[in-house]
Amino acid sequence: MRETGTQQVEASVRLPDGRVPGPVGGFVRACHPEPTAVVTVLVTALAAASGLAPAGCLLVAGAVLTGQLSVGWCNDRVDHGRDVAAGRTEKPLVSGALRPGALELAAGTALALCVPLSLAVGLLAGLAHLIGVGAAWAYNLGLKRTPLSWLPYALGFGLLPAFVALGLPGRPWPPGWAVLGGALLGMGAHLTNVLPDIDADLAAGVRGLPQRLGGGRTRVLAALVLGSAAVVLTLGPPGPPGAAGWTALAVTGLMAPLTVLPLPGGARSRVPFLATLVLAATAAAALVTRGVGLGPGPG
Questions:
Q1: How many CB atoms lie within 10 A of CB 78?
Q2: N or C, where is the chain less crowded by C-beta within 10 Å?
Q3: Which of 160, 154, 164, 207 is nearest to 185 (CA)?
Q4: DSSP string spanning 111-141?
Q5: How far apart are CA 224 and CA 208, in angstroms?
């Protein structure tokens, strides 16, 4: 019998010994592991630096991880049809490593776990985090096709500092610089994440903000947004930036232009998005090194 559709794709991604990648590896790839890991680690580190007790940090880590897993798995499930049409053989659903029903169950389970873990940090903190996770699901389920495609990213990342701060003793509101810096990082992540897929998205009728702007203008906007995020996160906290702050600003200043410069792989390059993750990690590491937290006091 002649192979068609997913069967042809599945045959093209067999391992050297002839096997199709297993479900465990499929779940890992489908969750978008790089941003999932980076966001979870950075938010947990910021919680620890802000003075949250170890038990609270574990709850923060669990809530952020399950939220990110649910969003990543939801994204791959919703995009399955488009991924098949585009021949994206690296996607576990396309390769046959996972079945749609299994990914739906995983996404729903992760979301169900995220709710009590988030609320266990504190009612207001949990609500802030769940609003951000809900915004990410709204992006997956339709907002990505509208000019407001950037809003769920800005809202979700901007609320992460609120999740941490509102979980601290006294439930302080997060500082404005942290919310603004997080929102700018989120918007930059959206722009750089979409860059490699703009042509395929347009062919599939997806017309979010980056698709409407086009690749060239999206690259310039991403560089400006990410550069602004670096400045806010370096100069926003009270006190002098110090060596750590200025070093981080220099590093992030080198990262932001990677969204504009010609790169190996051309328009399909993932370097701009990976540079965004490095930028976020560098800025967060500088805050922790400087002793900047989100609670009351000097930070």
A1: 18
A2: N
A3: 154
A4: HHHHHHHHHHH-HHHHHHHHHHHHHHHHHHH
A5: 19
